[in-house]
Design brief:
- The chain is an alpha+beta fold.
- It has 3 domains: 6-160 and 226-259 and 360-368, no CATH class; 163-223 and 261-266, no CATH class; 269-346, no CATH class.
- The protein has helices spanning 6-16, 27-39, 46-52, 54-65, 72-87, 105-113, 182-187, 192-196, 203-206, 216-229, 275-284, 361-368; strands at 92-95, 117-123, 129-135, 142-146, 151-157, 161-165, 234-238, 244-248, 257-263, 269-271, 288-290, 293-297, 302-305, 313-319, 322-325, 330-332, 335-339, 344-346, 349-355.
- The strands form 4 sheets. The chain has a 7-stranded mixed beta sheet, sandwiched between helices. It has a 5-stranded antiparallel beta sheet with strand order 10-18-15-14-13. A 4-stranded antiparallel beta sheet has the order 11-12-17-16, with no helix packed on it.
- The radius of gyration is 23 Å and the shape is globular.
- The protein starts with 5 loop residues before the first helix and ends with a helix.
- The model has no long low-confidence stretch (mean pLDDT 88).
Length: 369
């Protein structure tokens, strides 16, 4: 068993000495709020949201102002942070995106060293203790700061089913085979065992299906070492009864079902980097190519829908790896036409996944007591 650090012991001891607390909005309530928020109709009670969870209220308002869909994971991060702040009696809320001067300079420097950019702060009125909800591409979700001695306890908020991280894999070549580079392994060493198990994987052969058959050992390394690299001391999630639970980040496999996954078509898309293979796929669906203009029967393509609440058509798929945005297409008489340079190619990703299906607050508390 991996031993706990001093910081892990301290924050877990403090957490479980406090009365168990239910999440501000449970999963069912968050789903209702998310549907209302993504529908962008005047059905949300913003006054209630601002009172119960001001960070969430601000995130929804910001998504409206930027005309973007808010993701469900944002809801859980905000409500978990608010619940933890309530437990620790951090009653002063500050929006750091609007008030950049609230956090002391030495604390900002400390956060920067952890790749954290402050978004919201929950604090005592004397600023001696703060929970800072933060963001950053390579940073963890939040940090509990004891300002007097600059102790920092780093916290990752995760839903009951979530990915620990999902980086893009290196771009493959025209043969479609998995490429692993030294640079990738330097950035994401936790995935080395999983990748070693999939040498020779061909993305053109598995497109449309995610790859999930990894050994328990390789997945455990990917999940556990992910949080070591991101400097997370503990994970906060919710149990089956809606109570906030805190777990050591390096002992997640004790409490969660863990899985590994390679997605041939990840979330990020780029200009086509395998043009020869693309031409072969276009021939397979009887595309007509006139210089750079591609024309394809509409029934030869499948639709691509927007993520989030607005599920309108955002594009058309040539196959699971290649697509074109609908705004770049002309739809006429059952045919779709577009410039070949507008085609986008989806990059593969790799991830560790955790599922807290049967987690119970009392069992975790008893174990660490």
């Amino acid at each position: 068993m991996i031993p706990l650090t001093r910081l892990q012991k301290e924050i877990i001891k403090e957490f479980y000495e406090i009365k168990p607390t239910k999440i501000v909005f449970n999963k069912k309530q968050r789903n209702i709020l998310w549907k209302k928020a993504t529908a962008k109709k005047d059905t949300l009670n913003f006054d209630m949201l601002k009172k119960e969870c001001p960070a969430l209220e601000h995130q929804i308002r910001k998504s409206y102002e930027n005309n973007q869909n808010i993701q469900s994971a944002v809801f859980s991060e905000c409500v978990y942070a608010q619940t933890l702040a309530n437990m620790l009696q951090l009653n002063l809320f500050v929006n750091c995106l609007e008030d950049n001067n609230f956090i002391p300079a030495n604390v900002k420097d400390l956060l920067k060293s952890y790749n954290l950019v402050p978004r919201y702060a929950y604090s005592t009125t004397d600023k001696k203790k703060m929970l800072i909800q933060a963001g950053g591409h390579s940073g963890i979700d939040s940090a509990l700061i004891t300002v007097m001695d600059l102790n920092i306890y780093t916290i990752e908020f995760k839903e009951q089913g979530a990915k620990t991280s999902e980086p893009d894999l290196p771009k493959y070549k025209e043969d479609g085979e998995l490429v692993v580079t030294k640079d990738f392994l330097n950035k994401y060493p936790q995935f080395e065992l999983m990748l070693n198990e999939k040498k020779g994987l061909n993305f053109f052969e598995v497109m449309g299906n995610n790859v999930n058959n990894f050994t328990e050992e390789s997945i455990n390394v990917a999940v556990t070492n992910n949080y070591t690299k991101k400097y997370a001391d503990v994970i906060c999630t919710e149990d089956i009864n809606g109570y906030l639970v805190m777990l050591p980040a390096n002992q997640i496999s004790l409490w969660a079902e863990i899985k590994g996954e390679i997605r041939p078509a990840g979330r990020n898309h780029y200009k086509v980097w395998t043009p020869k293979t693309l031409n072969r796929f276009l021939e397979d669906i009887e595309a007509v190519i006139n210089e750079k203009v591609i024309t394809i029967k509409k029934d030869k393509m499948s639709i691509r829908k927007q993520r989030g609440g607005n599920r309108s058509i955002s594009g058309y798929k040539i196959n699971p790896l290649f697509f074109v945005f609908s705004k770049d297409c002309k739809d006429s008489n059952g045919y779709i036409s577009f410039n070949i340079d507008k085609i986008r190619q989806l990059q593969p990703t790799i991830a560790g996944k955790i599922f807290f299906k049967n987690l119970k607050y009392n069992e975790v508390k008893d174990y660490y007591n």
